[in-house]
Automatic annotation (TrEMBL):
UniProt similarity note: Belongs to the FMO family.
GO function terms (MF aspect): flavin adenine dinucleotide binding; indole-3-pyruvate monooxygenase activity; N,N-dimethylaniline monooxygenase activity; NADP binding
Classification via SUPFAM superfamilies: FAD/NAD(P)-binding domain
The protein, known as: Flavin-containing monooxygenase
The organism of origin for this protein: Paspalum notatum var. saurae
Domain of life: Eukaryota
Enzyme Commission designation: 1.-.-.-
Cofactor entry: FAD
Stretch forming the signal peptide: none
Length: 331
């Protein structure tokens, strides 16, 4: 179901929620909200004493994705920082940070956008950029950068498409090494395809960095007494709050401990495009680090396979079987 014609290229938060609600209504999808899956197994019993409800089905599609659980790096002294420490997943508004010096730890899209939002609403942000990162303009000649990248990859080899993207980024954004933001040796499309690292799109933060509204600092070495932070090289700065934008990871290993499809880190053992199917009716969608296009490809494969296998719909929930705990789901 495509987005409405009235939607912009980059829908708002509210527009995307409206789209999902209309999608669910159109296809009669009824999600089970406020329910936590504690475990999934191919056996007939969960083997757990804290089951509230047990679901029996022919298939299980693991779709919790790459970003199910927050990642916070082990930085010495972080627990002793006396200011407010927030992961970007809990960041709702810049109002709470107005007039504060805020350290944003992370050089990805979330860190860039939060830094700009803080700057636009009266805070004084600084970004920690530890690794080299590809920063691309959001649009080139009126076209979405990602749309252009897909077009180039369709007709050109990956290495050539990467060279063109880097050249366009340099022409539009300039030399970022002057801003203490170097580019990786591998191209942006190659990194996305091989390591799942999405290039950073500039929404206007680079302009604020150039004029000094957003500072770029080196790697944090440790957190000292009170609100002091020691950077690499011994330089010490003081901040009121910290926003940690260091990414997410899969949590499949926590609720699906024994299976043939996922590795110990919660990602498919087989690379895209063959990492969607396991045994005993187990499938995975949204874990192959190829963005929405890869997720769509997985979903189509799973839908076609389940539709042609002649299976029945999952049976209704059974229970409650016990009085405490979460929920169990069996294949």
């Amino acid at each position: 179901m495509p987005f409405p014609d009235s939607y912009p290229v980059y829908p708002t938060h509210r527009q995307f929620i409206d789209y999902l609600e209309h999608y669910a209504a159109a296809f009669e999808i009824k999600p089970e909200f406020n329910t936590t899956v504690q475990s999934a197994t191919t056996s007939s019993s969960s083997g757990s004493g804290d089951v509230v409800m047990q679901y029996i089905g022919r298939w299980l599609v693991a779709a919790t994705g790459e970003n199910a659980e927050t990642v916070v790096p082990d930085i010495p002294g972080l627990e002793g920082f006396q200011g407010k420490v927030t992961h970007v997943s809990d960041y709702k508004s810049s109002e709470a940070y107005r007039g504060q010096r805020v350290l944003v730890v992370g050089c990805g899209n979330s860190g860039m956008e939060v830094s700009l939002d803080l700057c636009d609403h009266g805070a004084c942000p600084a970004r920690v950029v530890r690794d080299a990162v590809h920063v691309l303009p959001r649009e080139v000649l009126g076209k979405s950068t990602f749309e252009l990248a897909v077009l180039l990859m369709r007709w050109l080899p990956l290495w050539l498409a990467d060279k063109i993207m880097i050249l366009l980024a340099w022409l539009v954004l300039g030399d970022l090494t002057r801003l203490r933001m170097g580019r990786p040796g591998d191209g942006p499309l190659e990194l996305k395809e091989t390591h799942g690292r999405t290039p950073v799109l500039d929404y206007g933060a680079l302009t604020r960095i150039r004029v000094g509204d957003i500072d770029v600092v080196t790697t944090v070495k440790s957190f000292g007494k009170g609100a002091q932070i020691e950077l690499a090289g011994g330089h010490v700065l003081t901040f009121d709050s910290i926003v940690v934008a260091t990414g997410f990871r899969s949590n499949v290993a926590q609720w699906l401990p024994v299976n043939d499809l996922f590795n110990k880190d919660g990602y498919p053992k087989t690379a895209f495009p063959h990492g969607w199917k396991g045994q005993s009716g187990l499938y995975a969608v949204g874990f192959i680090r190829c963005g929405l296009s890869g997720t769509s490809a997985d979903a189509v494969c799973i839908a076609r396979t389940s539709a042609t296998s002649g299976g029945r719909r999952p049976s209704p929930p059974r229970g409650p079987e016990h009085a405490t705990g979460g929920a169990s789901q069996a294949l």
